[in-house]
Amino acid sequence: MPAQTDVVTGAFGYSGAAIARELLAAGHRVRTLTGHPGRAPAGTGIDVRPLDFADPAGLARDLAGAHTLYCTYWVRFAHGAVTHETAVANSRVLFATAAGAGIQRIVHVSITHADPASPYPYFRGKGEVEGYLRATGIPHAIARPAILFGGDGVLLNNIAWLLRRLPVFATGGRGDYRIRPIHVDDLARLCVDLGGRDLAGGVTVDAVGPQSVTFRELVMAIRAATGSRALVVPAPGWLIPPLSTALGAVLRDVLLTGEEYRAMAAGLADSSAPPAGQTVLTDWIAAHGAELGRTYASELDRHFR
């Protein structure tokens, strides 16, 4: 019997790459829809197709014959003509095309507290996308991570990079807002597990790790692991977005958007759900401190340049 073929959006990105590895290890054939087909490394064994939302017929051809679609597509922040509204519209095209192409199930990576009524465009858009997915009638699972770490992730690495180079690191207020990250490989294992379940009626899972920490505790763990001597100080919450913007201008990147900070400070990166992963955040930081923050990871370079 031939191996099952599954489609992963962005199989050379961050979470998409981890999901693709899990599927290949399980003996599945993997096809990817990617906005950067020219970046595909040689010898991966992955069938590479373009992710072109302006060509639904092409999308349908590239989805045909596959069993499950693992969707990691989204945009972290608006940049140029690409907005959260654009991402919502594109996701709707992708799901409708998948339904017409005979995809039998969809596993979608969303975010904790996704809500179409959210005041935050990221969370509101994710909530709208979840609604479009449910409306397709395709058996589906929604995995809702808060923050990802591990591998070549950006957030922890760039906090470490700043702690290695700046004499002072500012947190908004006391930094007592909590976050509950999940390791990217734990998320991938969860997604592949969900893809093998009975998804009639749909399943939604908060994809969070076993440990909830405050943002200050996260920063202090990275500080200790990297041997940084930076002074970690509280700053007024309103000051964090302009500080991040100023640093981003120097680095020609986007460090942290105002929306991301406000949503995190409002508790949207935490969850009371049972753990969906096993990797303990602070243990992982302690084990990887020597390599964290050695080089800067540019979000704009990865996705837009």
Short synopsis of the structure:
By secondary structure, this protein is α/β, with parallel strands linked by helices. It has eleven helices and 13 strands. α1 packs across α6 and α2 packs across α3.
Explain what the structure shows.
The chain is of the alpha/beta class and 305 residues long. It folds into 2 domains: 5-148 and 180-207, NAD(P)-binding Rossmann-like Domain (Rossmann fold, 3-Layer(aba) Sandwich), CATH 3.40.50.720; 154-179 and 210-303, UDP-galactose 4-epimerase, domain 1, CATH 3.90.25. The chain has 11 helices and 13 strands. It has helices at 15-25, 56-63, 84-101, 121-136, 155-165, 184-195, 215-226, 240-251, 258-265, 281-288, 299-303; strands at residues 5-9, 29-34, 47-50, 68-71, 105-109, 140-145, 148-149, 168-172, 178-179, 182-183, 203-207, 213-214, 231-235. The strands form 4 sheets. The chain has a 7-stranded parallel sheet with strand order 3-2-1-4-5-6-11, sandwiched between helices. The protein has a two-stranded parallel ribbon with strand order 7-10.
